[in-house]
């Protein structure tokens, strides 16, 4: 089977444009929530590594919660509009059938999934980053 070079990138622009706002929200909320959590934890007597681990874990969960607020409605609309009607028709049908909360159908399982994966990734990344900086010094 031969695939044209153009076929490899089909839909890339749409995916990139659709993902950029969600990633910007997620990364911004990650850094803000990490800073807020670190400031809050300053008043507790605990090792720095513990404080950083807690802050990164909380930041990962907050970041994923914000991401769910953006991505879940898009996923619901994508799955709901199976026959590919227009966006406005899909929104109208979804609101008529389920109300505005219909856009957040399945947010619980998605949040749990994203939080476990995202928090593990962020905590691991920060730990490796911290260890690599110590080893260089």
From TrEMBL:
Coarse class of the protein's main subcellular location: membrane
Superkingdom to which the source organism belongs: Eukaryota
Organism name: Linum tenue
Any one of the GO CC terms: membrane
Pfam short name (any one): Mito_carr
Membrane topology qualifier: Multi-pass membrane protein
Keywords in alphabetical order: Membrane, Transmembrane, Transport
UniProt subcellular location: Membrane
Family affiliation: Belongs to the mitochondrial carrier (TC 2.A.29) family.
Solcar repeat extents: 51-131
Gene3D superfamilies documented for this protein: Mitochondrial carrier domain
Name of this chain's protein: Uncharacterized protein
Signal peptide: none
């Amino acid at each position: 089977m031969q695939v044209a070079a153009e076929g490899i990138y089909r839909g890339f622009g749409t995916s990139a444009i659709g993902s950029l706002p969600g990633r910007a929200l997620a990364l911004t909320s990650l850094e803000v929530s990490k800073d807020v959590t670190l400031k809050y934890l300053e008043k507790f007597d605990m090792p720095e590594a513990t404080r950083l681990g807690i802050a990164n874990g909380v930041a990962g969960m907050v970041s994923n919660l914000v991401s769910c607020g953006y991505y879940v409605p898009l996923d619901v609309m994508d799955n709901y509009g199976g026959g590919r009607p227009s966006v406005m028709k899909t929104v109208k049908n979804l609101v008529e059938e389920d109300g505005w909360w219909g856009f957040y159908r399945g947010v619980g399982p998605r949040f749990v999934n994203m939080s476990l994966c995202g928090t593990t990734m962020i905590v691991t990344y920060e730990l490796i980053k911290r260890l690599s900086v110590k080893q260089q010094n």
